[in-house]
Amino acid sequence: MDLDLRKLRYFAAVAEHRHFGRAAEQLYIAQPVLSRQIKSFEQELQCTLLVRTTRSVELTAAGKQLYEEAQGILAAVAAAVRRVHDVDRRVQRLVVAFSPGLHVSDAIRAFTSRHPDVETDVVPARWWEQDAPLRDGRAQVGYLRRPFDEAGLHIIPIGHEPRVACMPAEHPLACRGQLTSADLDGERMLDAPTRRTSSLEEKFELIASGHGIALVPLSVAQSYARPDLARLPVTDAPGIDTCLAVLADRREKLLRDFLEIATATLRPA
C-alpha cells in the first residue's frame, strides 16, 4: 500500500499533542475532520494506532512505532523538497547532523569563512539512530558519537570523552568526588536497553524524579546541567569516541573541504 503523507502528518500531530483538539488547531483543520482522517488512516494500515478516552489519547504499541518512524519519514520528505528547491534556485547547501552534547559550530564558522556562498544547516541526530540523517538524505555529514551502524560510511576519528554518572542531587552517592562501576552495583540504571527514552530531556527528568541513574557522555551532562542533578566521574567506565561520518561514496569537493576544516577544528590540540 502507498503511505498517505498527509494522514501521516495528521497522526504525528495527534501523537505529539496526545490531544485531538490541540492537534487540529496546529493543523488548521476542524477536529471532526481530523478524527475521521485518523480513523481512515487506521483502516488503511489495518491496525489501531490510538486509544481514545473522553480525557486522553494514548498510543498503542503500533502507534508508538509509527510515531518514531513518522518523524524520520516526514523529516526526510521535507529535506528532499528543500533539495529540489535548492537546485531550482542554484543554492549550494551543506547540512551537518550532530549527536546530543556535541558542538559543531566552530567547524561551521570556519567553513563559512572560506565558503561564504554556501548555506549551512544543522539537524540533530537521535541517539538511537545517529546515522539515520546521513542515510535518508537529511544531512551530508555527521559529527557523531560511537557506537552506531558504520556500514557504508567513511569515518574520521575526532576525539574521546569520558562518561559520568547522573543522579538526583540528593542521592546518597552524590556527595562522592568520583565513583567506580562497583559503586553502582544494585542501583537502578536508565541506560538502554533497560529503558529507552525518546529524548534526553525525558531521560534527565526521569533521573531527577528518582527513577534511576544513567551513565552519559560528559558533554551531554554539561549541556543538560540542572541544579537538581549531580554528575560524577566513573573512573573505570569505558569512554566514548567521537567522529565525523559521511557516506562512503560521497566525493564532492565541498564535502571534502568541510571534512578537512572540521577535522582540524574539532580535534583536541
Automatic annotation (TrEMBL):
GO MF annotations, alphabetized: DNA binding; DNA-binding transcription factor activity
InterPro entries: LysR_HTH_N, LysR_subst-bd, WH-like_DNA-bd_sf, WH_DNA-bd_sf
Domain HTH lysR-type stretches: 3-60
Keyword DNA-binding: yes
Domain of life: Bacteria
Presence of keyword Transferase: no
A GO cellular component annotation in the UniProt record: protein-DNA complex
Keywords, comma-separated and alphabetical: DNA-binding, Transcription, Transcription regulation
Family: Belongs to the LysR transcriptional regulatory family.
Designated name of the protein: Transcriptional regulator
Record lineage: Bacteria, Bacillati, Actinomycetota, Actinomycetes, Kitasatosporales
